[in-house]
Amino acid sequence: MQKKNIIAVNHSVILAQGEGDFAMHDMVHIGKFKLLGEVIKIEKDVATIQVYENTTGLQIGEDVIGEEAPLSLVLGPGIIGNIFDGIERPLQYLKEVSGDFIERGIDRVGVDVQKVWHFVPTVKVGDKVSMNTIIGEVKETELITNKIMCSFDIDAEIIEIQPEGDYTAEEMMAKAKDINGEIFEITMLQKWPVRKGRPYRERLVAKELLLTGQRVVDTFFPIAKGGTAMLPGGFGTGKTMLQHQLAKWSDSDIIVYIGCGERGNEITEVLEDFPKMIDPRTKKSLMERTVLIANTSNMPVAAREASIYTGLTIAEYYRDMGYDVAIMADSTSRWAEALREISGRLEEMPAEEGFPSYLPSRLSEFYGRAGSVKSFNGEIGSVSIIGAVSPQGSDFSEPVTQNTKRFVHTFWALSRSLAYSRHYPAVDWNISYSEYIAELQNWYEENVDIEFLDVRQKMLKILEEENDLLEIARVIGQDVLSDSKKLVLQISKAFRVGFLQQSAMHEIDTFVPMKKQYEMLQTIFLIYERALKLIEKGIPISEILKTGILAEYEQLKFQIENDQLQKFENYNISVKNRLKKLEESYQQHI
Amino acid sequence: MPSIGPLVYIKTPPDVSFEEQVILVLKNGEKRIGNVIYLSEDITTIQVYEGTNGISMQETKTEFRGKPLMLKLAPTMLGRVFNGVGQAIDGLEEIEYKEERDINSKPMNPVSRKYPRNYIETGISTIDGLLTLIRGQKLPIFSGSGINHNELTERIIRQANIQDDEDFAIVFGLMGAEYETAQFFRKNFEENNVLSKVVMFQNLSNDSSIERLLTPKIALTCAEYLAFDLGMQVLVILTDMTSYAESLREIATLKEEVPSRKGYPGYLYSDLASIYERAGMIAGRKGSITQIPILTMPNDDIAHPIPDTTGYITEGQIVLSRELYQKGITPPINILDSLSRLMKDGIGKGYTRENHVKIADEIFAAYSKVQEARALAKVLGEADLTSEDKKYLEFGTQFEEQFIHQAPNDRRTMDQTLDLAEKLLKNLLRGL
């Protein structure tokens, strides 16, 4: 047993000295309360330990016992649909042992190892296995089949495999022998240290859209499966609301939702909402594909720091089975603040705004674990990361926003002025961007339309022109603008309300398939082109507005159901006819 | 015994534990409360809540109590006034305490929480109608210096009530208040006979600033007892959180901690969260804790670290406007900057009125048009506005004078508030 003794206590950081041999990142149990902690610095025989629980009541001289292993997760069936704290303790279990308020010193248990699963083998005696080879399957939830993988990195041969049947997670499912005759037992469970990325055979280029059903995201600022995105916004800009929408509607196989230092009531809302929500593709409850990691803002700060890695490791585990996994981290700023707090207690030299100088490298490591990969077992899976950022004072120049920007490829900036004018989602199209357009070009062409990107680009241009015109109009007034400029303003306004705004509460509007997004995009563009022609022929814009077409466009999103897209064709014809009529009547007039 | 400000450093005695409660006994027998905030083999740092004035280096004795700071509790605390460290100061009979609790409560397990769904009626139209306060919510008031938010606070305490027959109580924590302010509250509570439903904890501006760090925790420990042990619906009002945050900065600086924004410690967020997150409801228990923390925005700046971190933790905010205040509109609530995040789930059918959401949405939309029309009027002059814009201007004035403005004794029920809103909207529509 490796042991040291406490020599100093400073909130979540303690020092321990003694003979015991501790390695960096080893887990330790501290004092009479058996608090969980992690070694974060070693100097001679003194170890600095960050404690995952409240340190009240610790005394000088108490024992610190090393676990001789880093913080690791128990990975196996039973993760999906569960809700864990930052170090993989199921919250339901914590409630059973400690009641409504979380007590200290409860050891990690991970998934329920006693639970019985129905195992179906997929290998036979004599088959060759190695890292991550799938030896069998269990149905984990209605939606997810857990593939039981070898967790050792050695070439071996199956010498025994259990027949199909019901087994607990910790039972031996297979035995394998390597070239030296050493025998490995395989169970449904494996352990993996959270701070180490799971290896894979090959990193692939992300080229498939992560469909979210949110128009401003899918059409203008998309994220690819295996991509990274950030979502900065001040309080009240609807960050969490958008994260919830993405978690609900993304066409990812699995969602890992990390509530990192956020509100307790929000987690409760997710827990009440998600089981009731039905996934539009599979018609099953969303909890059947969701894992929640909840470390609310009043839970200990060191466990908040770990929660991000816990979520990542779970995501990588399912990625290796060939699933597309999306991580929603709300909010990475709270994680960065946890780093800052611990760094401060270590009396490290601060860099910007008190954040430690290694903040950028930690962020880079985190987002670097996203990607589309080919696993050692040949399956192709991906981990996408969508990180919410809560900028201090809504100022995007603060260190977390700026540094995150360097490592992600999609940037959805939430704007307070849009949110105050009740424009949701408040994604500011003037400063948001996506670097995945080139990679996704083929996807859009094959799955939506060959001209999709072209129309998208033209619409972006109109929005940009609106931005410039509004600047001018602010100074000299709208009246002096020419009719064709005024048309740009009117079209943009209708487009903002009718397309960019999307109601999370509305049954039809909450999720919109890509085809409908494209129809809506084409219709506004059709209106623009036809109206522009009339204006060029001298018909005043007021006449065009009188047709009420633009006002209709604003309501179209609610009126055309997601599976009734032929109605767009009818509508487009009616637009053409009415504008044509206007043109004719006007010409007669002259 | 060397000391710097409220910190005392002593040679570590045997068996002392982290955050343990310490009683310092002065030469003249006076006792002061402190606790251990740093512990090493040689030196123990003690934070003394009532200040170190008059503590002599040699002749002070320390008594370690073997447990963290605790608050004694009893149902008879209702109607009483305490100081910032939880001692009764109203000169009434001794309280027979039943329990003792650690003032730093453990985090509530998110799976034990119940999502808040019912409301508290404050009798103030802007809050009830447009920024409904939900039981279990934390909804701060952001004020500015000179805007009389104490009047609003007193009103909320006097008027707040619930519509079902659950027991209702208010826990009121005053931090860094002037003597006059504290007197203002006590006098009004007595005159209006509301003290019986209030537990008041007061830390005055001439009390030790470090004591302020205890007051909200003590108030919330009392609230948790009333709510989760005695099953009451408890509204906790904490004012002024800016004083609290300043004390936090003061002590952090003395401890030579690395500062982050504007000198506040990097853990300002976690620390405030440990207070605000103590609001909520627990599944299977009757009571609830609703919080209204009140804070003064330094220089009216909503991006200042105190309102900023608060806004990230709380479920919305009520922002007071200097402009309305100067127009004589009270309570001067700027509804457009304000938001109640949990409102949508606690109003409407089964709670208030079926069309409550619709009414609120229409008021928000109309009032934001009022702002546009006013901006336009500034540039063009009122005479050149379209008739529609003129209508909105008229609505704006009516809305501010009749709906937002409420005389001090004008308590409106939820029905009266919604009727008034509907009437104003109808007037507007008729004109358009």
The secondary structure category of chain A is alpha+beta
**What share of residues are in beta strands of chain B?**
15-25%
Mean pLDDT of chain A: 92
Global outline of chain A: globular
Please state the CA-atom Rg of chain B, rounded to the nearest Å. 24 Å
The average pLDDT of chain B is 91
What does this structure look like?
- The complex is a heterodimer of chains A (590) and B (432).
- Helix content of chain A is 36%, strand content 23%.
- By secondary structure, chain A is α+β, with helices and mostly antiparallel strands.
- In chain A, strand 23 and strand 24 form a beta hairpin.
- Chain B is α/β, with parallel strands linked by helices.
- Chain B has 3 domains: 66 residues, Elongation Factor Tu (Ef-tu), domain 3 (Beta Barrel); 275 residues, Rossmann fold, CATH 3.40.50.12240; 76 residues.
- Chain B contains 12 helices and 20 strands.
- In chain B, the strands form 4 sheets. In chain B, strands 8, 10, 13, 14, 15, 16, 17, 18, 19 and 20 form a 10-stranded mixed beta sheet that branches. A 6-stranded antiparallel beta sheet of chain B has the order 1-2-5-4-3-6, with no helix packed on it. Chain B has a two-stranded antiparallel ribbon with strand order 7-9.
- In chain B, helix 3 links the parallel strand 14 and strand 15.
- The longest helix of chain B is centred in the last third of the chain and has 25 residues.
- The radius of gyration of chain B is 24 Å and the shape is elongated.
- The termini of chain B are far apart.
- Chains A and B meet through strand 1, helix 1, helix 4 and helix 6 of A and strand 4, strand 10, helix 6, helix 7 and strand 20 of B.
- Strand 1 of chain A pairs antiparallel with strand 4 of chain B, so a sheet runs across the interface.
